[in-house]
Amino acid sequence: MTDSENDSIQPSAEIPELCQECTARHRGICGALRPDELTHLNKISKQKTFAEGLTLMADQQEAPFFANVLEGVVKLSKTLPDGRQQIVGLQFAPDFVGRPFQSESHLFVETASKVKLCTIPRKGFEQMLGDIPSLQERLFQQTLVELDESRQWLVALGRKTASERVAGFLHMIALHMPNNKESPSQGDKNTTSFDLPLTRSDMADFMGLTIETVSRQLSKLKKRNIVSISHNRRIVIHDMELLEKTSRE
Amino acid sequence: MTDSENDSIQPSAEIPELCQECTARHRGICGALRPDELTHLNKISKQKTFAEGLTLMADQQEAPFFANVLEGVVKLSKTLPDGRQQIVGLQFAPDFVGRPFQSESHLFVETASKVKLCTIPRKGFEQMLGDIPSLQERLFQQTLVELDESRQWLVALGRKTASERVAGFLHMIALHMPNNKESPSQGDKNTTSFDLPLTRSDMADFMGLTIETVSRQLSKLKKRNIVSISHNRRIVIHDMELLEKTSRE
DNA sequence: CGTAGTTTTGAGTTTTGTCAATAACCGTGG
DNA sequence: CCACGGTTATTGACAAAACTCAAAACTACG
């Protein structure tokens, strides 16, 4: 809407208004761009909001766009012929979604929650990727981080118990979610609260468990007074340290 | 030894002798280099052979070099405080070993078998990476492939049974190993033989199982006449198709 | 309130892990 | 070439973890 305001005035110096407050501006891939490059990206990209449970890109399909996650959680999953499913990645703001150098994804990309994306058309982005080495390097670095995360989760699935996986999952989510702290002791890093962005079914598919096992493990954490859960999604973590410890052994 | 023969004659046109027959020359990262660049890489790199069971880079340590795998298998693993171990990746020729943009590895890198590497000193390689965009792009692409493989194995660990994992593992190894076919029917793609590059213990650590479970599943595959095993390591796959099918359901 | 969908809990089964004993393999040296 | 000892792999019996199926409780929403 207001995308084109700066167009003819100072094409190479100002930062587009929309990008000023953007979560992807600094920590995301846009941080690799000069003002004029950012302006160009801003011109071809478009913010869009998606409801929970939508498929953004389907397995074996040409992915029409790349995107930065601005809000919410995007899940990457794989499905076996008999219907078993595994979530192989979760993307939070300001992560980048999409795979360069390959038009078709072999993943399902779906919204796990309500999601706001900054979408970028495939062609335009690939052009920029070829022209701007710093952008490619940034994307390369983010890919390396994703590889690290994937391998970290591989350890959880291969060697950790259900109890450790659930604790580790909650801990990881706690670090990624906007932290709605309500306790008076603001500086207390040992307690946090947030809304779970995933259903029990998604949690199970991420952790390689059944929903019943996930539920039982959550109940155990409640009994140990490490977390409280209300309305299914609302989580209060009373003891982050103990949660983290539980995820390690 | 013969590394420096071409040095002063035609520094920018000829392909170094050692690289001529190298497995990394075409499919590996060296394929992204021009002859003069390859000559430079050849000058700073060095072929080395390592015995089975050696640690090339340890967790939290500064990795002294990058390398191309020329022969054998390198395993990447992570260890939990209590000793549980998970192999998070296996590298075959002509894979690249090492993580750019980060001096310390969070992995153990060990030789799973006897291994031949073309090692490249950290500094020199990072310099080349900065100077040669095509090299960075090649490495980026290989990283994306590794990410795909890692996610594929995530599905196995999260959702597949022991039987499926073992079949899938054998199938994967069969595709990577130099295929010592001995049967008269050369063109028969349904049968293969090779030496396992991993011990039962490594196999278990890769598949997130115990050695006993691995052994029991191998025995089942023998009973079903899908494979034969002799001398612990020598594998003959009689029916690749059935093996692959077993890995999928 | 009542209903549909989700989550939790319970009871019983299956798969995989643990521990222990046996067997196969490899290298060495007689 | 065979015997020996150490290592690695297989097999068996049992235990534990997680799964399946079914029922009850909770939640959201009209």
Key attributes of the depicted protein:
homodimer; 249 residues; Arc Repressor Mutant, subunit A; 2 domains; 4-stranded antiparallel sheet; globular; DNA-binding
Question: What do you see in this structure?
Answer:
- The structure is a homodimer of 249-residue chains.
- The first copy, chain A, folds into 2 domains: 17-154, Jelly Rolls, CATH 2.60.120.10; 160-248, Winged helix-like DNA-binding domain superfamily/Winged helix DNA-binding domain (Arc Repressor Mutant, subunit A, Orthogonal Bundle).
- Chain A contains 9 helices and 11 strands.
- The first copy, chain A, has helices spanning 17-20, 23-26, 35-44, 122-131, 133-159, 162-176, 200-207, 211-223, 240-248, and strands at 46-50, 55-57, 65-71, 74-79, 85-91, 96-97, 108-111, 115-121, 192-195, 227-230, 234-237.
- In chain A, the strands form 3 sheets. Chain A has a 4-stranded antiparallel β-sheet with strand order 1-8-3-6. A 4-stranded antiparallel β-sheet of chain A has the order 2-7-4-5.
- In chain A, a hairpin with a 3-residue loop joins strand 10 (227-230) and strand 11 (234-237).
- The relative contact order of chain A is 0.12.
- Residues 1-12 of chain A have low confidence and may be disordered.
- Chains A and B meet through strand 5 and helix 5 of A and strand 5 and helix 5 of B.
- Chain B binds a DNA duplex (30 and 30 nucleotides) through residues 161-162, 199-201, 209-216, 218-219, 231-232.
